[in-house]
Amino acid sequence: MPKTANKGEWSEIYAALRILGEGKLYMADADGNKTPDEWMDVQELIRHESANRRVTYRIDKETSYIDIAVNNMYKTSVSISEFSIMADRLREEIMSGRGRAFTISPETEEFLSKVEIENVKAKSIDKSDIFLSARDPRSSIIRKNIGFSVKSEFGHDPTLFNTAKASAVVYKVHGMNDELMEKINNLYDSKNHVAVSDRCDALKRAGCILEFVGFPVVLRSKEKVAAFEENLDMINPRLPRVIECMLWNHFFEFESKTDLDVVTKLVAEINPCNISRPEEKYEYMIKAFIYAAYCGMTASKLWDGNSKVNGGFIKISGDGEVTAHYALESDAFKSYLFKNCYLEFPSTDEAHGNYAKVYKEGDEYYFRLNFQIRYK
Predict the structure, then answer these.
(1) Distance separating alpha carbons of residues 3 and 21, to the nearest angstrom
(2) Strands 372-375 and 130-135
(3) CA separation (Å) from 301 to 263, 287, 305?
(4) C-alpha dihedral sign at 72, 74, 75, 81
(5) Among 72, 154, 146, which residue's Cα sits nearest to residue 313?
(6) What are the pLDDT digits (tens) for 164-173?
(7) pTM over cut 0.70
């Protein structure tokens, strides 16, 4: 049966074919542009197709062939030029693909089978989709088994920080009553979706006072804990207030801009934490937060501060160019994320904490807002 996948999933295969066909992986600068004089000389690429299937591609530039092994058992050798040709073909098929998921041509399918690719989506290990052994352009040292996640501009913008019940900002609502709660919770748009902005506006017009009280408490290892707040506190104790300010500006002050660098500048102007040098400090905090998210920090699980990344990520541009970003405490990488990430506001369902709904606990009323962050 032909394989079916979306553009982002096919992009993982494309990245592997392109890297193997070129034998090198160019590095990107802080703006995401290729640096033509800086690249990794790739010697080996590994895909963990499943828990029990590891495919290794070793580049032999003397013979111009790539030796392919499955679980360290040699299978076949395929010319480097074939990988390059099939990368071009797959790129065109991805760019012309229609629908949420689609198949590729029988010829491309046949090549994938020939080079031992059975699964489109590799098993992600510590947030990495493929692993490389290559000569580091900065030190000329051969680094082995460097993990990279693949992010593609072919499909939908990939998520950096996923929303969860635990990531919701929680407010205690003063000046609320049952009748007003019912009225606000019955505000929907023309498509019968929760009218988040209308509900926030209704709270303001009703004269309600919202007091930020933190983030939801979740059950972890038989212990109730505000996991996201704990994680933010580890990065910077002021971050809970900063995140709250970002969401307040969007929903209650109707700030439409969502680019992370622009949103952070607005926070610096407001200076909710009343700190010195706000322009530098708030930017530093947000860069630390998004880097932690990239390294494996989530909202629902207590984070120990350790990174799950040993390499970085590979970006596929809209025209198919493949470049790499180092993520190992790289200021350039953090700047790239900061300039290329934006806030997004997901649906208001149970998985996202039923935010934008007034609810009651005992005699107290509460209201939540939520968010996620994507690469653009």
Answers:
(1) 22
(2) unpaired
(3) 26, 20, 12
(4) positive
(5) 146
(6) 999 999 999 9
(7) yes
Amino acid at site 36: P
- φ, ψ for residue 339, nearest 5 deg: -80, -20
Neighbour count for residue 182 (Cβ, 10 Å): 10
Q: With 0-12 CB in 10 A as exposed, 13-18 as middle and 19+ as buried, what is 56? A: buried
Phi and psi of 276, rounded to 5°? -80, 160
* Residue 141 sits in the same domain as residue 249: no
If asked whether residues 206 and 279 sit together in one domain, one would say yes
| H helices present in the chain, as ranges | 7-22, 80-96, 106-114, 178-185, 196-205, 227-235, 239-251, 260-270, 278-294, 331-340
Residue range(s) defining the domain that contains residue 66: 7-156
* Interatomic CA distance for residues 91 and 169, integer angstroms: 41
CB atoms under 10 Å from CB of 207, counted, come to 9
CB distance 354 to 368 below 8 Å:
yes
Say which DSSP state 325 is in: E
Residue 337, Cβ neighbours under 10 Å: how many? 23
CB atoms closer than 10 angstroms to residue 217:
15
Closest CA to 242 of 215, 219, 207, 218: 215
Looking at 156, 190, 211, the residue that finishes a domain is 156
Q: How far apart are CA 240 and CA 243, in angstroms?
A: 5
CA of residue 77 relative to chain centroid, distance? 35
Task: Look up tokens 């009323």; give the residue.
Answer: 365
CB 274 within 8 A of CB 239: no
Quote the tokens at residue 223: 């212990």
Q: Are residues 228 and 88 in the same domain?
A: no
Contacts of 269 (CB under 8 A, 6+ apart): 278
In this prediction, residue 222 has a pLDDT band, given cuts at 50, 70 and 90, of: low
Query: pLDDT tens-digit profile of 61-84?
Result: 999 999 999 999 999 999 999 999
Dmax of the chain from CA atoms?
Answer: 78
Give the pLDDT confidence score for residue 138 in this predicted structure.
64
347 within domain boundaries: yes
Q: Is residue 322 part of a domain?
A: no
